[in-house]
């Protein structure tokens, strides 16, 4: 593992608010840009307000990335424990409310009864402080942040990190791509409420004198309209897959994708539209970033981040030694891999997606890949189902244009029989899906991940199998 070096183009989080000026606005928006001086004053003002509260654990729920950044840095300098719920829905916040006693937000969300609420867009940010705050350096290891994994079952799992770990990851990102991203503005389709958006959309730009856009790009046409050499796109497979019907406008300086596997067709469409392949980043909330690649074909391996060491355990599962977790302890993942050399590996799927049906070990990932290798299938999600007191597999699929024509000609019943017949080339009979659902798109949550509960709900009525 190479030693972590702080790039000269980066100001560490510990010293960020001690900077008196910077070249670029902090955030950009058609209604106006926010300068560094305004940001400095706003963080100071919010620090003063927070000092009047007894609460020690504050959740941040913001749609506006500028307000989010102000809240984040104010809580850090107030030495508060920060909590980032991934979902702002009332029931979801209520479920997580035991993690926090205060809520900073900028929209009309329903605050849990157990905590106090402070709405950021009602504050008079133009008001001046009687005594300007002088920001002291932060001890990053002492400031904690709770994030939440999406959880494949849909139940969020709390992950606690400290800001020193996030600072290490920002330094690695800047070492890899800082020169390429010089003097750009960051636009994003992903939420800053999760670790990918938090790092790539907010903290990395803040520490490296780059502006970020205040609001999400939601629609493909917005993504195309923002394209320029002065912009970097932070996105996910969920959005990049929706660019298939768009026409070329201009090129982004760089495109990043994370949160799930990016189909090769979506990567190739980015190459067509923007003259470059996305940088795909592999990792998780628990691990931070692990590796990256630009997908030239289905066999393109992943390249580890330079500061991370990789190895495989006896079950051929990836383990890492990473300064984004603990630089002295190996972390074991459930990712089944083929290691090519000390720097590269190929993902084979997760071992927690291997199940037993009639004493046969079946890889759900393998069944999905076999389905997607057929010319009629665009995407597939395979899951175990209980049917008549026995375990079977169900498959949720989207069709290619060829598949849509074939279904119209054959009818669904004969089409399902065709799929099963084709799968017998590779898969034992017990591992072939018996129940199918045809959808326009695979349902995803706000992080662009599939939830088992959402997929299971498609099979509650078996009439359309």
TrEMBL record:
Residues 134-304 form the AMP-dependent synthetase/ligase domain. GO terms for molecular function: ligase activity. The keyword Ligase applies. Keywords: Ligase. The keyword Ubl conjugation does not apply. PANTHER family: ENZYME, PUTATIVE (JCVI)-RELATED, PTHR45398. This is AMP-fatty acid ligase.
């Amino acid at each position: 593992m190479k030693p972590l070096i702080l790039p000269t183009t980066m100001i560490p989080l510990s010293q960020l608010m001690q900077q008196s000026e910077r070249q670029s606005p902090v955030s950009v928006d058609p209604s106006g840009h926010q300068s560094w001086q305004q940001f400095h004053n706003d963080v100071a003002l919010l620090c003063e307000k927070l000092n009047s509260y007894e609460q020690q654990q504050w959740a941040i729920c913001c749609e506006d990335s500028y307000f989010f950044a102000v809240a984040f840095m104010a809580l850090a300098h107030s030495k508060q424990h920060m909590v980032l719920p991934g979902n702002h829905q009332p029931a979801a916040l209520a479920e997580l409310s035991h993690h926090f006693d205060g809520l900073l937000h900028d929209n009309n969300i329903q605050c849990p009864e157990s905590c106090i609420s402070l709405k950021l867009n009602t504050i008079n940010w133009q008001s001046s402080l009687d005594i300007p705050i002088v920001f002291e350096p932060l001890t990053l290891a002492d400031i904690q942040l709770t994030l939440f994994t999406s959880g494949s079952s849909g139940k969020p799992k709390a992950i606690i990190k400290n800001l020193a770990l996030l600072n290490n990851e920002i330094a690695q990102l800047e070492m890899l791509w800082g020169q390429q991203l010089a003097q750009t503005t960051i636009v994003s389709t992903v939420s800053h409420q999760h670790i990918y958006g938090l790092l790539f959309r907010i903290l990395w730009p803040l520490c490296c004198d780059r502006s970020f856009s205040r609001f999400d790009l939601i629609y493909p046409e917005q993504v195309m309209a923002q394209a320029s050499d002065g912009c970097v796109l932070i996105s996910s497979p969920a959005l990049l897959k929706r660019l298939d019907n768009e026409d070329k406008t201009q090129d982004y300086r760089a495109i990043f994708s994370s949160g799930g596997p990016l189909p090769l067709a979506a990567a190739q469409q980015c190459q067509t539209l923007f003259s470059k392949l996305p940088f795909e980043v592999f990792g998780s909330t628990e691990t931070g970033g692990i590796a990256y690649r630009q997908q030239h074909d289905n066999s393109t391996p992943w390249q580890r981040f330079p500061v991370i060491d990789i190895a495989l355990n006896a079950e051929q599962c990836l383990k890492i030694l990473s300064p984004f977790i603990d630089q002295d302890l190996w972390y074991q993942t459930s990712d089944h891999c083929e290691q090519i050399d000390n720097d590269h590996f190929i993902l084979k799927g997760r071992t927690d997606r291997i199940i037993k049906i009639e004493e046969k070990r079946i890889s759900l990932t393998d069944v999905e890949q076999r389905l997607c290798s057929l010319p009629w299938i665009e995407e597939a999600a395979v899951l175990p189902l209980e049917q008549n007191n026995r375990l079977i597999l169900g498959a949720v699929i989207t069709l290619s244009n060829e598949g849509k024509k074939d279904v119209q000609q054959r009818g669904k019943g004969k089409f399902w029989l065709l799929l099963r017949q084709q799968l017998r080339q590779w898969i034992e009979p017990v591992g072939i899906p018996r129940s199918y659902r045809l959808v326009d798109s695979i349902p995803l949550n706000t992080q662009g991940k599939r939830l088992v509960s959402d997929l299971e709900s498609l099979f509650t009525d078996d009439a359309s199998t």
